[in-house]
Structures are given as C-alpha cells and as structure tokens.
Design brief:
The chain has 438 residues and is α/β, with parallel strands linked by helices. It has 2 domains: 104 residues, Urease, subunit C, domain 1, CATH 2.30.40.10; 284 residues, TIM Barrel (Alpha-Beta Barrel). It is built from 14 helices and 17 strands. Helix 2 crosses helix 14 and helix 11 packs across helix 12. The chain starts with a strand and ends with a helix. The model has no long low-confidence stretch (mean pLDDT 97).
Length: 438
C-alpha cells in the first residue's frame, strides 16, 4: 500500500467508447493504473474527486514548443508570408535561454489544460534545451528536432543535414533512455527540405526506431509550389522519399487528393488535425470523417501559439466537431469520436497505445480530473458531449503524468509560475530584438 494513490468519488470515464461510472475510483501504484471502476481499496494517498470526471489525459498530436514565446507576433497572414517574414527569423534568433522559456511556457499551458503527452516539431537548434525544460515540467512526449536546409530559402535557420543528424546523435546519447521523452526526426516540409534531406532523415529515423514528423498539404499555395518543384502531389512526393508509414505523422492534410489518401491508408500514416490553426490561417477544413471512415488514425493538435493562439485541446475538440458539421451536416463526427482522436489517436501516433490513451490497468497513470459543476456544464449528461462542447481548459482541476500530480488546486507543482512569467517577458523582448522584429 505504501505510495499507492486512490482517486475516489469520481465519475470515471475509462475511454471514449465506454460508459462513465458514477461513484467510481482509480487506484494507482508505481505510476501505473491498477484498477479503474467501482471498488473499495486502501491507499497511502486518497484524493476525493468530489464528483469530477476522471478521464485519460489529452494528447497533443502537433505542437511547436519553440514558438510559444512568439504568440501574437504575426497576425492576419497566410502561411508562407507568416513563416518567411516572422516565424523563421524568430526561430533563427533563438538562444538556449529563450528556447527554455518558450518550452516551459508551453508546458505550463498544456498541463493546466489537461494535456499529458504530445508530439512536437522544434527548430533547427537548441533542441536539447527543450528536452531539459520538458523533463523538469514532467510531461510525456516525442520532441521533434527540425531539419531545414538551404532549400527553404532562409539561410539563417538552415543547417546542413549531416550536422543536423549528428546533433540527433547527441540528443539520443543524452535522452535516449528517458522514461517519458523520446526523440522524433522532423524534416519541416517539402518546401524547406531537399529530397536528399528527407531521404536521409527517413533512413536515420528508421535505423534507430524514431518517429518522423512533418507538415503536408496545409494550403493550396504550398501544394502548387510543391508540384512545381517536384512534379508530384504533396503526399505522393512524401511517399516517394519515404515520409509515409506507421512511424510518420503528417500535420494538417487539409487538401488531399484521392490518390494521396490511398497512400495514407496503405502505409498507415497518421494525420494530425489542427482545427484552430487551419481556421486562423484560412487553410481550409480537413476531411476528417472521411479519413476515419478509411481507418486512417487521426490525432488532434494545437499547432504553434502564433497561429492559434491558444494551446487548448478543449477548444481544438470543439472546433473539430463544429467545422465538420458545417461541411457535412449536424450528424458529422460524434463527440465520442473527437475525444477518441484527442486521447487514443494521440497515443497510437506516439506508438504508446499500450501505455496511455485509456484508463486500463497496467497503463501509465496519465489522467485528468475535469470539474462538471460549473453553470456552463450543467445539467451534465453525456461526458463526451460535455468535454467537447461544454467544458473548457479552465475546468481541469488536476493533471497527472506517470502518477505524479503536475497541476492541482490551480497551481503547477513542477514549474515556478512567477519566475516563468518574468523569464517569458524578458526572453521574448530579447528574442524579438535579435530577430529585428521589436
């Protein structure tokens, strides 16, 4: 019993496709779930959930931690001018201190909003500092080291691919045995990476069992330029160079032709759906119900703070449902399907479907408590409907990863909030000055 944690008096919702149990409990031992349901047990630590919903932690399928410090710097722009005029210059100006502040700021927002794991794309330098920040914050996830070469047309951020992959070796030496974090290889997208860059990235990742993460088919202008450069549709070209498969996550996939969708199905490639970013950058609406109907795994992500501007998985779930109803009618994409994408879909993307995504015995105790007593959630009915359409990130009252409480009673337990706020203000000012954007 020593060290056991018992959450009791809860509305326990083990997974999106199961019923919630009132008056339920969750028993946790050594960071893993022992039992979830209606039972009696003793424990060293007892948490009275006071009727809160206990559910699997949310998983962000696509995020840029290095960009959170840039929130609000580039508004009302299309994708490519946004990248070339603001985001890439800012990322090129990052230093270890600003990367750390940006990553910790991301972690703070994710943890407070019920996210317990993620897949990211960082920038081309200082990814070790992102690992260090996330390690201290306590989240789980795959951190993607970004690859960009001279093909992108912005030399200050470009890194020769040999040097980039040598840096990945350094990251693996330092973090390869971490229990919560792992490295992903992230060639940014076709327009910023040469063919050899992408082929080498795929060979490197697969020889080491690493995930691959990139962007694809976000906007029509991007797709046109890819066709001009390669003579191929975006995903057809990615398939040619090896960037499809069960170890690959493709962010956005808004504009995908039927032959491209076939590659997604045949290779088991994951789609990373980013509703807010797709709305805000006017990218369009990804055909998510069609992907799901073809058994394509979909995860939900917030993308970067400069194109969102909130890293709020509850908002992403709500918009994911609303945008499909505009396309296909009110019956499109059920709330349960959306929650499944935000939990089990993310777990499958990370290759951790046996470790997280549901509250099954043996899985990591990555879970959240969500208050159901606010006026905006009453009367509480179906938990999926509540989570997707009524609840907000502010309704999260506890976030736990591997049995460790990272957020409780309005406070982060692993991050000094006052220090972080001061660091963010200081480092943002210095970063924008270095980037020439102050």
């Amino acid at each position: 019993m020593t060290g056991d944690i018992l959450i009791r008096n809860a509305l326990v919702w083990p997974s999106a496709d199961r019923d919630a149990l009132e008056g339920g409990s969750v028993l946790i031992r050594d960071g893993r779930i022992v039992e979830a349901g209606r039972f009696s047990a003793r424990a060293h630590t007892v948490i009275d959930a006071d009727g809160c919903l206990v559910m699997p932690g949310l998983i962000q399928g696509h995020i840029h931690m290095c960009q959170t410090l840039l929130r609000g710097i580039a508004e009302d722009l299309a994708l490519l001018p946004w990248l070339r005029g603001y985001i890439w210059p800012s990322e090129a100006a990052h230093q270890p201190e600003s990367i750390r502040a940006s990553a910790l700021l991301t972690c703070a927002e994710l943890i407070r909003g019920g996210t317990t794991a993620f897949l990211s794309i960082e920038t081309t330098r200082h990814t070790d500092d992102t690992f260090q920040a996330v390690h201290e914050a306590g989240l789980a996830g795959a951190i993607g080291h970004c690859l960009m070469d001279e093909t992108g047309g912005y030399p200050p951020i470009a890194v020769d691919n040999r040097d980039a992959l040598a840096y990945c070796d350094v990251l693996l030496d330092r973090w390869g045995d971490h229990p919560r974090l792992k490295l992903a290889v992230a060639p940014r997208f076709v327009l910023s990476c040469s063919e050899s860059n992408m082929r080498d990235a795929c060979a490197y990742a697969r020889s080491r069992g690493l995930l691959l993460h990139t962007h694809s088919s976000e906007q029509q202008e991007e797709i046109t330029l890819v066709k001009e450069r390669t003579g191929r549709c975006n995903i057809c070209y990615l398939n040619d160079v090896g960037l499809t498969g069960a170890d690959v996550g493709l962010a956005h996939c808004v504009h995908v032709r039927p032959e491209e969708r076939r590659f997604l199905v045949e290779t088991g490639t994951h789609v990373l759906h980013c509703p807010s970013a797709n709305f805000k950058l006017a990218s369009g609406i990804a055909p998510i119900p069609e992907y799901l109907a073809q058994d394509i795994n979909v995860a939900i992500g917030g993308d970067g703070a400069p194109c969102n501007n909130r890293l709020d998985q509850f908002l992403e779930m709500r918009l994911a449902g609303m945008m499909q109803k505009i396309r296909l009618g009110p019956e499109a994409l059920s709330a349960r399907a959306i929650v499944k994408m935000a939990t089990e879909g993310g777990a499958k993307l990370l290759g951790w479907e046996n470790e997280m995504g549901t509250l099954d015995p043996g899985k990591r105790a990555n879970l959240i408590l969500v208050d159901q007593s606010g006026f905006h959630t009453l009367p509480s009915t179906d938990p999926a409907t509540n989570v997707v359409y009524s609840c907000t990130a502010n309704d999260v009252v506890m976030t736990m990863v591997d049995g460790k409480i990272l957020y409780e009673d309005g406070h982060l337990t692993t991050i000094d909030e006052d220090k972080l706020k001061a660091d963010v203000r200081r480092e943002r000012k210095k970063l924008l000055e270095r980037a020439g954007l102050a």
